[in-house]
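Why run this: before we spend reagent on co-expression, it is cheaper to look at a predicted model of the complex and decide which construct boundaries make sense. The entries below are exactly what would go into the expression plan.
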Amino acid sequence: MDLFGDYTLRLVALGSAVLGATSGALGAFAYLRRQSLLGDAVSHAALPGIAIAFLLTGSKAPLVLMVGAGLAGWIGTLVVRVVVGRSRVPYDSALGIVLSVFFGVGLVLLTFIQKQPNAAQAGLDSFLFGQAASLLRQDVVTMAVLAAAALVILALLWKEFKLLSFDPDFASSLGLPVQRLDGLLTLLLVMAIVIGLQTVGVVLMSAMIVAPAAAARQWSRRLLPMVFLAALIGVFSGVAGSLMSSIVPRLPTGPTIVLVLSVVVVGSLMLAPQRGLVWRFLRLGRLLRAPDLDPVLMHLYALSLQHAGDPEHGHNIAVLRTMSPSGADVGAALEGLADRGLAQQTGDGLWAPTPIGRREAERVLEREAES
Amino acid sequence: MKGAGGEWALEVEDLTVAYADQPVLWDVDLQVPAGVKMAIIGPNGAGKSTLVKAAMGLVRPVAGEVRIFGRPRESARGQIAYVPQRATLSWDFPTDVLDVVTMGTYGRLGWFHRSGAVQRQQAGAALEQVGMTAFLRRPIAELSGGQQQRVLLARALVQDAPINILDEPFQGVDAPTERAIIDVLDGLAEEGKTIIVVHHDLQTVPEYFDSVLLLNVRAIDSGPVSEVFTEDNLRLTFGGRVGVLETREIEV
Amino acid sequence: MRKVLFLAAVAVMAACGGHVTAPEENDGLRVVATTTIVGDLVRTIGGPEVQLEVLMGPGIDPHLYKASAGDVRRMSSAEAIFFNGLHLEGKMTEVMERMGERGVTTVAVGECLAAEEFITSTAFSGLHDPHVWFDVGLWAQATRCVADTLAELVPAHADAFRNRAQAYHDELMAFDGWVHGRVGYLEPEQRVLVTAHDAFSYFGRAYGFEVYGLLGVSTASEAGTSDVKELAHFIFERRVPAIFVETSVPPRYVQALKEAVEAQGFAVEIGGTLYSDSLGDRGTSAGTYAGTVRANVETIVTALSEGR
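The model came back. Tokens follow.
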């Protein structure tokens, strides 16, 4: 099936892949720095930038509009910083304020603009939800150049950005210009968002920033794999979404990409090993049935701690019976422990844990302390 | 003991820091000689963390100066190795122990250079010092509190800096880890390095440290433990909440 | 900073001055029209007896147009509002209903045509394609209900309105004949009209064209990649020599279509710009309904006859 033989599909898939890779990679850093909502705020803040760029230049060239979008998004982040720094408003509230105010101004400007003669030619409305099918070769080239620049900078400053995300105070103590690095990383995020506006639009762009990172985090234990995987998930969603929208008529590309992404995220949250919900559910079940959580052994161990100097000190089975719930067959449990070498009978009705039994109990306690 | 050129390792003059018009540090003067092990002691909200952060330029003071080996703070790069409070970091970050310790080498590595075998070896040596060699590739999310603290210490050790500042390093760690940390700090002091620790446990001050700063927004007193760590001073610092000391004798 | 930019934008707009046409100063009936097309009709029939304000300027897309506060004010203080209806002004339905409730006479000019003439929209079942005006003969029917409404509101001028309406009706029927003649220059198989959106179904039906629009009946919908692909394939197969951009829709859709066709190895041209949901600028030859239709027909015939 010569699916990718079609020119339009190839173009849209390529554009979406570029978008997915960049937003995935930079979204990973935003996620780790707990700035995922910033992506949402920047996307929405871009709207008035697009409108003003059109008003000031009269141009409908995507590059001009994207510059306007980027500037407005960037200014939005500065406003957030100022609001947080100069007032008691918490970070997420400041984000919400910037998001809604900027977006509202953008909508008002769009209403003004629609009265301009031939303003419809600029297609500003299409930036709300994207118009992937109208991507021209020139657009994809622009996107690719911007993406390459962003990713190259990311690679060059990888270790600085890693340290900045993990421990900015320590980074500062090393003499790194933390404020400027933070600004640069935010700028890269703005670039990633601007790249995607034509394809998925202002409203859905935040999903492209947050979702690949959230999904990738479930599968990775180190930074490079996580960023790589996030980029890969972005690319996959972009291409798959484009493909689906090219097969089904009247299926809009932007929302389809985000839908594919959502499926990947939900799947990751459920199925990933270690962190996935399904995995954790199974492990919990196993723990509940685990014989090494044998409460009698734990009781025996607890008793033996009171006689630290005398490990062979036997404890009366009657004491163990009072510590266990009524109806529990303590005698049988002790026999079972003895069979496994975890307990020993030191006298008539007297029991003590063996050294192996003690170690086993300590291991259980350590595991409990760490979880 | 002053440094080679006769200057203090760390000197703070008239330092004042405020958050939203509330003074956190007020007119603080401090001279830290080179090679001492100094504890910073004070009640909650006394500004202990703020003081060390201001000393490193992480917090901007309203007034005052910080000098490191006689030079202004801004021009003294790479002189301080910092161990922040464990709780301020997100240990969920996807990375392993070796990677975190290697971060300590970034200052000397410079822009655009990747960390390589040399840095890995330095990190390995530091981890050995804190007894964490077995955990080289362990994701940091799987570490216990004591292990986390040792990793942060190793990260500072790798810098081989003349001044080491630790913020509450003994908070929530078990006895063996506490012992290990103190051994490392003693070793550093023997090499002539300066140690400054924000500390919370009054009982262990005389045992672990030779100098102390008593701080409660203002500097109450600072100097050798034997001279400064007195009941009267503690009462001044803690405002009468020092109960624990009245039943103990302070050994000189 | 935002305020400065905002004020600058408003200043720029005021300087450009492109918005609602100023009401023609006389003591006539205060009347509001939504699109330039409807406005042209009302102006022709109403003559000096009405004071007309048109909300949308040339090049404005009525599918996406949202009424501003100023528009609502103008509509409330008017005595009659003429609009196209059939959901052409898709984002103004509620406003129109409210106006009706307030007692303002609202007339959907498109809806007063004979019911059997409507083309049903394939995408929105149950709704009709609203682009009724490019079938000149059909549009001539609309003169009647405009005249009737005006006559009812101002009985004193009823005769003037009806006479003008009749004269214009006859003019339009003659013009319809001219269009038939002009498109006769194209062979039937050359009459393939590909545009940005489905604004020309009535034109196609009346004058024998196969009509294809990329975006469907409303520009508010998004074209999918498959739509571009299929249309590009069709253009390639049929060797359609030209496709058309529209004044009120961003040209990039058609440009994307052109690129897709070129990738298949056929060089399709952009045959020109058509007036689809709006008339041309006032004061130009395309500033009237007839002028616009004539300009469209010339563009279409010239571009599609290249293949000969």
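Residues 15-19 of chain C have pLDDT under 50 and may be disordered. The longest strand of chain C covers residues 269-274. Bring this page to Monday's planning discussion.
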